[in-house]
Design goal:
Largest sheet of chain B: 3 strands, mixed
Oligomer: heterodimer
Largest sheet of chain A: 3 strands, mixed
Strand content of chain B: under 5%
Strand order of the largest sheet of chain A: 1-2-3
Number of helices of chain A: 19
Number of strands of chain B: 3
Distance between the termini of chain A: 7 Å
Number of strands of chain A: 3
Number of domains of chain B: 1
Helix content of chain B: over 70%
Strand order of the largest sheet of chain B: 1-2-3
Strand content of chain A: under 5%
Structural class of chain B: mainly alpha
Order of helices and strands of chain B: EHHEEHHHHHHHHHHHHHHHHH
């Protein structure tokens, strides 16, 4: 067994603080839009650069630690970069750069108000997301989780109309009520039982003593899995469709990448590093969780089928796809865990492309409903082409990224000898096809309502088109070269 | 037996009488402006001098430090005895820190009888310090009652439209509670073997169980009204709403702590059997306060009332922590006392700043001001998040400790407090949302001006405290730790085997 090395590394703190500094800079330069956008962009690049600089040591088997402050015995604010955190950090940091460009095009294209606030909150949300990625203990995770909740409220309610406030209210109600009502008591019980909230340094042992009461551990586990409601598990998923009132770049980055991924990341981090595979096995928590989230996978897909509004359909697709991640990890087999975690990556690249497309379609043609997009694909071939590729990733067709996830998930289900899960995965794949194929079909193969339906409609501005093509290519790239991210995940099993 | 360590020079007396001595110069000051500057100077000097307590304090011992002892009425064994331990030190520092802020926040708000107002504030500061420093029961009682008069005047003279009603209600309530305090005092005096009023000597005596229960009840009424615990809280919203900002700050930050301080200083070490007997009922009242305060706060349209009811809920957490009687609970309770002082005091300051601008405390009159007052709403957000125990702020650490303490000793009570945590998020976020954003139709607030330098300094200091305790509470907890351990040891020793 290779030696596990812990290194104190302050650049971790820089990676987390860079977006915070970016947010401050954006606020200070708000009066000059070009400078402001440059600040966003430079911060995103610097953040990405710092995260990338951590790749090499982490791949070499090191664990980087940065202690920020000490509150109580066993309760501190500390950051760590291990292979688990790098997966999420790399995805979030890289997609932030792309999104900065995209939102530039989107917000200016629609002459949106309060762009300074928008950009500042965006950077703050990334601050929270990276903090979650690098959290070394449950408390730090909770801290940044809450920062994400609060800093994204202004983004969700951005339009400041009735609908925006309604969505924002629902968003904050669901997320804070679950965090306060479920995660906080679970944290306190964990602290009382284990005396610490630090994550374990491997995925097998966890921190709970083996003699801990079964009822208490099971209850804590359920509270934590449901409490991180950003993971979209039913019945606490309702905030997600409600949050779709936000401008599309927000939906794209936050609701396909940062916010929801913070939810699944937190959930899986806790499953693997607070409870650990052994404890979850011993208390038989894994397979019931897998079946529990299977309901979400299927039900959300069925709801997605019924939605004509493109963003709503994508939202329910997200709810469904997020549960794949949890399902995979809950199988507790190496392949299952790999499938679940790699889906964080594949879903991120795919779903952000889909949302980018939805936004580009809206800016170019002001169409929101799928039924109004008949033949639109011929006018916007690049956008819909990217949409089709991303849809393939959601469905899990080779050689696009989603295939890798599905492959590992299916193998994981077989390893765990769970035929039921296999059926769920296959059924959900069918449902994925059922709700994505009609979009592509309508756009490319249906005739417009009348000849001049799309007069004056063109592809969206390059600031929007280029990012969505990049993310679409990336989702193909992670399908062809899955090893880049798989290396990190394999590091967990060493 | 806890000893009393004397200092080289009587720093406690200096701190105690500095504000009072400051009053002597008032006849010489001609203008109101000069009086304000003078009062500010006196309180700042007191605050700076009080830092000597922190630097000179030895957290490794539970003894009373900086002790002073002068025989006062020897025939009755009454002494002028002062001393500070880990439990009172932070409360003293908080009092001296908040006093200059009270004067700063009244700079423009008080325009009539300015000197008299300042005199009240200074008398108040001395009396509050006296309560936390006194080691003699009679002396404690004198300061305890002395606080009522300036507070009564602060509300009754400089208050809002219903000031007379509010001040009389405040006075009657707290006086009614205090009536039983001397009874308890004399009972203990007579029961103690040495017939003493010395607080350290009264602790840990083998009083009979029935005496302890009766004395506890007498203490409880006095302190519970002061906290205020549900259902003795009704004076609080009235007093807060009518009091001037400085009055509300003093009331919320320091006066309420007198009650919980009393529980810690008297009930736990002197009447442990009483505490053990009645703890379940007190815990039930604490939970009721947490939930009831939260629900009432949720229903308010007046900012000040909202913060007042949130106080009831927050103080419920403090009493919850104290009466689960374990280290985490009591340390959490103590920290929460400091946190509540900082956060709620700051929130009252924020309300006052809005009131000075809009002449209304209705949330509806100040909705959607995020754009015109960005600095203000940033500060308000920090204090609001602190009030709802957002991680990274002071209250989180306190609330976390209290909940850990209650889960350790009384899991059921801990679980019952969780809805209160959610409620606090609900009413605070709702208020923040309305003030910062509002709805689709907001009143015209474009005439409002953002904070000036004086206001920024006032709130800035408190922001620093919120984040300091939130990220590095150890310097504060270290001060408590040994004293709390000693308190628990005294409590355990007093219980029947």
């Amino acid at each position: 067994m290779p030696e596990k090395l812990f290194f104190e590394n302050p650049s971790l703190l820089l990676a987390v603080l860079a977006p915070l500094a970016g947010a401050v800079l954006v606020m200070l330069t708000g009066k000059r839009p070009n400078v402001r956008e440059a600040c966003s962009f430079i911060t995103a690049v610097i953040t990405f650069g710092i995260v990338v600089s951590l790749v090499q040591p982490v791949l070499a088997g090191q664990k980087l630690i940065c202690h920020v402050s000490y509150l109580l015995p066993g309760l501190s604010i500390a950051l760590r970069a291990d292979s688990f955190s790098m997966v999420f950090a790399l995805v979030a940091a890289s997609l932030w750069i792309v999104t900065v460009f995209y939102s530039l095009g989107y917000m200016r294209g629609l002459h949106e108000h309060d762009q300074t606030r928008f950009n500042a909150c965006f950077a703050l949300a990334l601050f929270g997301a990276l903090g979650c990625a690098f959290a070394d203990n449950l408390f730090t995770l909770y801290l940044f989780y809450e920062i994400v909740s609060v800093s994204t409220y202004p983004l969700v309610a951005h339009h400041q109309d009735q609908e925006g406030y309604e969505g924002g209210r629902k968003y904050l109600t669901y997320l804070t009520a679950t965090a306060k009502g479920l995660v906080l008591p679970a944290m306190i019980v964990t602290y009382c039982v284990c005396g610490t909230l630090d994550f374990s340094d491997n995925i097998s042992s966890g921190i709970f003593p083996s003699e801990a009461s079964r009822v208490l551990v099971t209850m804590t586990y359920a509270f934590l899995v449901l409490g991180f409601a950003k993971n979209g598990i039913m019945p606490f998923h309702h905030w997600l469709p409600g949050a779709m009132v936000a401008p599309t770049p927000v939906s794209a980055l936050l609701h396909a990448v940062a916010v929801v991924k913070v939810g699944v990341f937190a959930t899986t981090r806790v499953m693997l590093f607070t409870f650990g595979v052994d404890t979850m096995d011993a208390f038989n928590l894994g397979i019931p969780t897998a079946y529990f989230v299977s309901f979400t996978i299927l039900a959300a897909s069925l709801i997605a089928l019924s939605k004509d509004n493109l963003k709503a359909r994508l939202a329910y697709s997200t709810v469904s796809q997020l549960s794949y991640v949890i399902l995979g990890v809950a199988l507790l087999t190496p392949t299952g865990i790999t499938g679940g975690l790699i889906h964080i990556v594949n879903h991120a690249f795919g779903k952000i492309t889909l949302f980018f497309c939805a936004g580009a379609i809206y800016v170019a043609s002001h169409k929101k409903n799928i039924s109004d997009m008949q033949g639109l694909g011929r006018v916007m071939p690049w956008t819909f082409g990217a949409f089709a590729i991303a849809a393939l990733t959601m469905i899990g067709v080779p050689p696009v990224g989603g295939f890798v996830s599905k492959w590992y998930l299916l193998v994981g289900a077989m390893d765990a000898a769970q035929t039921g899960i296999l059926i769920v995965l296959l059924a959900s794949t069918m449902l994925n096809i059922a709700y994505f194929a009609p979009v592509v079909y309508t756009a490319f193969f249906c005739k417009p309502a009348h000849d001049r339906a799309y007069e004056g409609v063109r592809e969206a501005a390059p600031a929007m088109l280029v990012p969505l093509l990049i993310t679409a290519s990336l989702s193909v790239a992670v399908g062809i070269y899955p090893d880049f991210f798989l290396r990190f995940i394999k590091g967990l099993f060493l | 037996m806890v000893a009393c360590i004397s200092g080289d020079w009587p720093i406690l007396s200096v701190l105690l009488f500095l504000p009072l001595a400051g009053i002597l110069a008032f006849p010489l000051l001609r203008s109101d402006g000069a009086a304000k500057l003078w009062a500010l100077g006196v309180t700042i000097i007191t605050a700076v001098a009080s830092l000597a307590l922190y630097t000179g304090f030895n957290p490794a011992t539970a003894d009373y430090q900086f002790g002073e002892h002068i025989a006062w009425i020897p025939s009755l064994n009454i002494n002028y005895a002062l001393g500070v331990d880990g439990i009172s030190l932070m409360l003293i520092l908080m009092t001296t820190l908040l006093s200059p802020l009270c004067i700063l926040c009244s700079w423009r708000a008080i325009t009539v009888r300015v000197k008299e107002f300042l005199v009240c504030l200074l008398v108040m500061e001395s009396a509050m310090l006296g309560v936390f420093m006194a080691l003699d029961f009679i002396l404690f009682y004198i300061f305890w009652e002395a606080m009522l008069i300036p507070m009564f005047l602060l509300i009754g003279v400089w208050g809002g439209p219903r000031k007379i009603y509010a001040s009389v209600k405040f006075f009657l309530y707290t006086l009614a509670g205090s009536v039983l305090l001397p009874v308890a005092m004399i009972a203990l005096y007579l029961a103690s073997p040495t017939h003493t009023f010395s607080i350290p000597e009264l602790m840990g005596q083998p009083y009979s169980a029935s005496l302890q229960c009766w004395v506890f009840l007498a203490f409880f009424v006095a302190f519970a009204i002061k906290v205020p615990m549900f259902p003795f809280h009704t004076w609080l919203p009235a007093a807060h709403v009518e009091a001037p900002t400085a009055g509300s700050v003093v009331l919320a930050s320091v006066l309420l702590k007198m009650g919980t301080y009393g529980f810690l200083r008297f009930c736990l070490p002197m009447t442990p059997i009483g505490v053990q007997t009645f703890a379940p009922y007190v815990l039930a009242l604490s939970i009721a306060g947490i939930i009831y305060g939260g629900l009432c706060a949720l229903a308010q349209s007046d900012m000040k009332r909202l913060v007042a009811y949130s106080s009831v809920a927050h103080m419920g957490f403090v009493t919850l922590g104290i009466f689960v009687v374990n280290t985490a609970g009591i340390e959490g309770g103590l920290l929460q006392m400091i946190n509540h002082g900082i956060t709620t005091g700051a929130l009252f300051l924020c309300v006052g700043m809005i009131y000075e601008r809009t002449h209304s405390r209705e949330i509806a009159k100040a909705t959607g001001i995020g754009k015109v007052m960005p600095i203000y709403v940033t500060a308000l957000t920090i204090f609001g998040l602190s009030s709802l125990a957002f991680p990274g702020t002071n209250s989180f650490v306190g609330e976390f400790l209290v909940l850990v303490g209650s889960f350790q000793s009384a899991t059921l009570w801990g679980l019952l407090a969780i809805p209160g945590v959610i409620l606090s998020a609900a009413y605070m976020l709702r208020m923040l949302q309305r003030i910062i954003w509002g709805g689709t139709h907001n009143p015209d607030t474009s005439y409002l001006k953002d904070l000036n330098a004086r206001e920024c300094v006032t709130l800035g200091l408190l922001v620093v405290m919120v984040l300091w305790i939130g990220f590095a509470p150890q310097p504060f907890l270290e001060v408590f730790h040994v004293s709390v351990q000693n308190l628990l040891a005294q409590y355990q020793a007093g219980l029947p085997m």
